[in-house]
Amino acid sequence: GTILFHSNAQEALQKVREAHGGEDPKWEVLEGDVEMETLKKIIEDQQESINRRKGGR
């Protein structure tokens, strides 16, 4: 599977815990077509976020 972190993985895990009242996140293994569709969605969302920050250039 693929795990993408823009920052330190420990920092990301801590932020998730804080957002969920100190509980550990639920993990799910994605494979095959589901993995590819999820990765595609992540990349599209990141690009959209970048475009918004740049003023839609």
From TrEMBL:
Membrane-spanning intervals of the chain: none
Pfam families listed in its UniProt record: RRM_3
Organism: Cirrhinus mrigala (Mrigala)
InterPro entries associated with the record: La_xRRM (IPR014886), Nucleotide-bd_a/b_plait_sf (IPR012677)
Keyword RNA-binding: yes
GO molecular function term, any single one: RNA binding
Occurrences of domain XRRM (ranges): 1-56
UniProt entry keywords in alphabetical sequence: RNA-binding
Keyword RNA-binding: yes
Descriptive protein name: XRRM domain-containing protein
